[in-house]
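Example S7 (structure tokens).
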């Protein structure tokens, strides 16, 4: 049985492919019977795979990880652990084959002007942005804008955008909840470390334990103090619908929209650099 090295807390632990598949199954809250039915294999065979008594075929690894909605990056790792070559490419963002994707993203970002929009990767590092994002970045000190720029760190760092967010307790709880949900999906230790860092930042306001709407609210707003004005935004996140490349699967576009007429007027009249 081939195993893979996983580093946890500075100690390298060897996890065979069967153990990893069991961990993903339990993370998705499937019983062996439920997963075996979805994968059209016997419960006994799945049990043998998880305990190391049987080595899964390449197709079985792909079928099981598809039903468990395992991220493409982790599917490649599981294939390697089982002794097979990865099947999903991981292209550099500036690779020639991604030129149509970069052009499409640029069109989306430019088309969203004069409203801010960004593209970020799995680690929440900024990949692309439109010029309207300067409304936010002008409020952030240079030391937080040194590449790679982490979107969550710039938002919640006490020296960053957090100083200008009127509802920082509410917005911080919202962002940390999003990050926790991503950790549950990906089991990424890097995101866990990022959450630990962000959760350790001081916050001058209490954070709600559960996101509840305020009077008349239908979305969690970003309330931003810019000069003597309060701007209000909501955002929409989009991802690629059918990615077959690790890089594409981990990209997301977040587009910000004005949540009231005053913010819309300011964005429309504001010169875009």
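Recovered sequence:
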């Amino acid at each position: 049985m081939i195993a893979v090295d996983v580093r946890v807390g500075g100690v390298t632990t060897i996890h065979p492919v069967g153990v990893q598949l069991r961990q993903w199954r339990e993370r998705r809250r499937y019983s062996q019977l439920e997963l075996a039915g979805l994968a059209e294999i016997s419960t006994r065979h799945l049990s043998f795979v998880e305990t190391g008594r049987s080595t899964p075929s390449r197709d079985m690894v792909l079928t099981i990880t598809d039903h468990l909605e395992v991220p493409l990056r982790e599917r490649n790792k599981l294939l390697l652990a089982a002794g097979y070559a990865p099947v999903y490419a991981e292209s550099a963002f500036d690779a020639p084959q991604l030129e149509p994707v970069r052009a499409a993203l640029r069109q989306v970002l430019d088309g969203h002007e004069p409203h801010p929009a960004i593209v970020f990767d799995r680690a929440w590092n900024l990949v692309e942005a439109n010029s309207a994002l300067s409304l936010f970045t002008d409020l952030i000190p240079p030391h937080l804008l040194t590449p790679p720029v982490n979107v969550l760190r710039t938002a919640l760092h006490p020296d960053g955008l957090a100083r200008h967010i009127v509802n920082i307790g509410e917005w911080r709880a919202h962002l940390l909840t999003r990050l926790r949900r991503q950790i549950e999906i990906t089991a990424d230790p890097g995101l866990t470390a990022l959450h630990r860092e962000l959760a350790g930042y001081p916050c001058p306001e209490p954070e709600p334990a559960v996101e509840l709407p305020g009077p008349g609210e239908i979305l969690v707003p970003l309330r931003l103090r810019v000069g003597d004005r309060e701007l209000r935004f909501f955002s929409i996140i989009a991802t690629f619908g059918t990615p077959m490349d690790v890089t594409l699967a981990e990209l997301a576009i977040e587009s910000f929209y004005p949540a009231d007429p005053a913010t819309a007027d300011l964005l429309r009249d504001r010169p875009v650099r």
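Notes on this example. The chain has two domains: 3-81, 96-269.
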